[in-house]
């Protein structure tokens, strides 16, 4: 919501147009908390995780409306933070439409542009104090020992890799070069530094602890693997860790569930 959502793409997700492969990369609001709540609330005994675990059935569960009212409010709060936190202006997004039946069984078409301004929908959220907006996470305590070998021994067993693609079957670390470092406040305001873990490929039939997409019509029998990406904001994180002058960062990947392939890791700057 804060450090990982400074641009509309970071918050709302990567563009997805007709003809594109699905799962281009979800935004932070989709990864947490939207999708996990749907999956967690859905019934694992049902074929497609009904009701909340599947797009066609989610509205049958009364908790759907409480959940989406909260998601909508978080969207509203995000926009109030200002700066570059604005909705997409791309007509491909604004003109996207959804068809559904209303309470009178009439087929209704609604476009995205019809729902991005809550005032036009006839409601507003109450302005209240939100303490967590200014609650900056503190880094873990620094290792006090000057014994480098002792410090390294405390780390989990891992290996460094520098060639892709990789199959994530063990703990691996990657040294990622930073194209720019020691940027000024204005440069940081103009562009967000983003870590991109690209070409994340996994079997849709297997539960993966990150990036498990809320099923919007593609049931779990689909044979083709999902290929997506993960984008993480770095600017605030590197400042908090006081490592903004470093030439590179070390990314460590730890496998949890299922077989995952990764095609590459890099750092980009997004305005």
Automatic annotation (TrEMBL):
Pfam family for this entry, one: PPO1_KFDV
Q: What InterPro entries does this protein map onto?
A: Di-copper_centre_dom_sf (IPR008922), Polyphenol_oxidase_C (IPR022740), Polyphenol_oxidase_cen (IPR022739), Tyrosinase/Hemocyanin (IPR050316), Tyrosinase_Cu-bd (IPR002227)
Q: Boundaries of each Tyrosinase copper-binding domain copy?
A: 61-72
CC cofactor = Cu(2+)
PROSITE patterns listed in its UniProt record: TYROSINASE_2
Per its UniProt entry, which superkingdom is the organism in?
A: Eukaryota
Q: Which UniProt keywords apply?
A: Copper, Disulfide bond, Metal-binding, Oxidoreductase, Thioether bond
- Determine if Oxidoreductase is one of this entry's keywords: yes
Record-level Gene Ontology MF annotations: catechol oxidase activity; metal ion binding
Task: Check the record and name the SUPFAM superfamilies matching this protein.
Answer: Di-copper centre-containing domain
Which family is annotated? Belongs to the tyrosinase family.
What is this protein's name?
Tyrosinase copper-binding domain-containing protein
Its source organism is: Trifolium subterraneum
